[in-house]
Amino acid sequence: MDLVVLEEIKRLKYRYLRGVDLKLWDEVADTFTVDATADYGTHAVGGDGKKFEGREAILEFLTTSLGNGIITVHHAGQPEIEVDGDTATGRWSFTDKVIVPDHKVIIEGAAFYEDTYRRDADGAWRMSHIGYVRTYESMLSWEGNPGFRLLANRWAVPA
Amino acid sequence: MDLVVLEEIKRLKYRYLRGVDLKLWDEVADTFTVDATADYGTHAVGGDGKKFEGREAILEFLTTSLGNGIITVHHAGQPEIEVDGDTATGRWSFTDKVIVPDHKVIIEGAAFYEDTYRRDADGAWRMSHIGYVRTYESMLSWEGNPGFRLLANRWAVPA
Amino acid sequence: MDLVVLEEIKRLKYRYLRGVDLKLWDEVADTFTVDATADYGTHAVGGDGKKFEGREAILEFLTTSLGNGIITVHHAGQPEIEVDGDTATGRWSFTDKVIVPDHKVIIEGAAFYEDTYRRDADGAWRMSHIGYVRTYESMLSWEGNPGFRLLANRWAVPA
To answer: Is A47 contained in some domain?
Structure first.
């Protein structure tokens, strides 16, 4: 068991997740191989998931979907990673929370990631596939609920 | 500090948690020693916790409690593992979310696991005890709340 | 990459988080250097965060804020730790849930920790700075919502 490689792959995933939540798109781009594929299995906006081919297409989707009007909290844990030379697979428990203040809506869900990783020529591990199947997804509107208040929002533009 | 053993025990726990949420009961069974004990400290259904002796009794409880009418999301993190030869103890932060669509109910809670582990004759680490004490547990009914919708459910049988 | 040091620093953080949620203040005190600083970036009680200098001031804040009337669940994961000799930095994904039964209020939030660590003369790693910036924070009152029930509370004094 190569514990250093395991740590490198975990760090790769954590960098991706932090980059998405903090909207650091250059950092996020560097976590994918150029030919990476994605299958974001969300059901919130209909369809059977959102599939993309190539780093550029994935980034296009993320940057246009996750502007400053959207708060996201992505969490992955419980990594089960299998390394085979310069490629690897990873399973992760995943939860996400998406808050859309303008629409007074919170979407929550859970899933299991089934990723693949590859060590590129520069020695860095990157995601060659990111994908998950949803366990559940729910939506809550706080319209008309005076008991709910958003107290802080990192992306709110001061009035 | 034997980092490989720590990783093996973490993986054991992650396999158990994934198995429970994905209802992979054969995988779950293999994470317990034959003589394992369990103390699932839940308060949702009354009583002072649910205690079981032996892998068979634990699996009987899990398989009969967690059918396709129940969505579960179990998360454990923050492992503090102490290894002593072929036995070990582990403390974990734990949260769970249980959704029962037919009853329009969500149960959420948090706890700290206090487990013990043993390396069996086949070389594999297994849980010899799983147990936790609840920090809190809450129940929310969305009956009569039009603001809540379940958008996706992995276990729903298509109509 | 010194994996043993990484594990020690992770364990330090987990001990701190468990200590806070279980109100084990002596254990918590020992996770800080004497000259530690804190910037608890919460917005729930107004202001631009809560800043403290010195272990004593941090502990004074924690013990007076988090009595038995408050249930807390702090979770940190996704560690990105950089070690440089006897000092280190760490970034963590962080979520918290604070329940105040007497006021029927739940506060939830997410943030990213930006900590620093130091190996003290006794060989133990401790936090020399703990701080975070909030991604969001929300408050929910269940006053007048018969659909919500608190089923278990570790800190409730039996009547």
So the answer is: yes
